[in-house]
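Lecture 7 notes: from sequence to structure.
We start with the chain below.
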Amino acid sequence: MRRAGHTEPRTNVKPTILVASTSRSFSPSRLAMALVNAGCEVKAVCPSRHPLLKTRAVGQFHTYHGLTPLISFAAAIATTKPDLVLPFDDLATLHLHDIYDRELRRGKEGAPTCALIERSLGAAASFPVVYARTTTMELAEQEGVRVPKSEVIRSADDLRKSIAQMGFPLVLKANATSGGDGVSIVRTLEEAEHAIGALSAPPLLARAAKRALIDQDMTLVWPSLLRRRYVVNAQTFVAGREATSAIACWKGTVLAGLHFEVVKKQDEGGPSTVLRLIDNAEMSSAAEKMACRLKLSGLHGLDFMLEANTRNAYLIEINPRATQVGHLTLGPGRDLPAALYAAVTGEAIRTAPKVTENETITLFPQEWIRNPESPYIRSGYHDVPWEEPEFVRDCINRRSQQSSWYSRQKWIQAMSSVRRPRS
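Predicted C-alpha cells for the same chain:
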C-alpha cells in the first residue's frame, strides 16, 4: 500500500536533479520531496539554514554564497554532475545564464556545462528573451497569444506616450525582478514618474545590507554594489482575476501543466497563497505556443489575467524557473515531477496518485503565515507535508519568530481541525 507522501520505486535509473535556490523560501523543499517521490535523486545548492536542509529528500547540499554566486553554482554542478538543474528563483536562473556565457567562451572545455544548462532551461537563444518583458509579449503576440500592450520606457517622453496610448491605470514592470518587487500599478502621471524612478534604480545599499544581515539573503548585494539600473516596461492594465500556470517541458514541448486561478495572495504584489485548479484552454494553448517558440525545457511558470467581463486569458509574464505549485501531483497531465523524470530517463510518464479531489489548494505554510485563521485551511486542501515533520516544525518556528503574538498553542488548535493523512 502506498504510504502518504511516498511512491514505490519505479526503476533502478535515478536521474540526479540539482535544485538551485538563492533565497530561503519554502517552495524548493516541496519540489525536492515531489522529485524524490517521482524517482529522482535530489541534490541542492542553497544558502545556509535553508528549509531544504530540514527535509529527508535532499541527499547532498552545497552552500550558496551571495558574494561569490557563480563559484557556488559552478562548484555544485561540478561535484554533483546532475542530469538537470532546476532554478527556483529569478536570480538562480540569471546565475545559470551567466555560467552558460562563461563556459561558452571556453569552447570544448565548457561544452558539457553549456549542454546541461540548455537541457535544464531550453535553447540558449531564449535566455535574453525571458527577462525582457516587452520582447516576450511581442513574441507571444506573434504566436497568436492574447497579451496586453507593452512598451519599453526609456525616457520621460516614452512614459507620456505610453500613458496617452494606454491610459490609466497603467502597470509598470522592471525586467529581471520577481516577487512583486518590480511591479507598480499607477493611476496618475505623478505616481508614474515616481514609480519609474524607483523601479529603474538599483536597490538601496541600506536595503541590501538589511536583507543580507537580518534576513541572511544576499540577492540584492551585487545589484546594489554594481549600481545597475533596471529596464522598465509599461503594460496595459487588465481588470480581472489573476491566474497562473506551471509547466514541465522538454525541447519546446509541454509534457504536463497545472492551471490555477488565484484566490488569495500574501499581499497585493506578493505570491499566491490559495489557488483554484481550473481547465482553461486559452492558458494551456498559450503555454504550449510559448514553450515551442522559445524551445523551453525544465520547469516554467506563466502568469495571466482573466478579464473580468469576458474571462479572456491575457498572458502578462513568463517565469523561467520552477514555481511554488510545481510539486502538486493532480492526475494525468498534471504531474510535473513525473513528466520530468520521464523526459530524462526516456520512460513513459507514470503519474502519481492525485493528492486531492479538492480544486481549492491551500499552500502550506504560505496561507497559514498570511492568516493562521484562514477559512481556506479547513475548506481547501491544506498542503501540509506531514511525512516531513522536521520541515513542518521549521515552518512553525519561522512563523513564530515572525509573529511573536501568535502562540504555538493557537497553531496546534488550528492544525487539529485538519485531518492528518493516514500512513
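Points to note: Confidence is low (pLDDT under 50) at residues 1-11, 404-423. The chain is about 35% helix and 20% strand.
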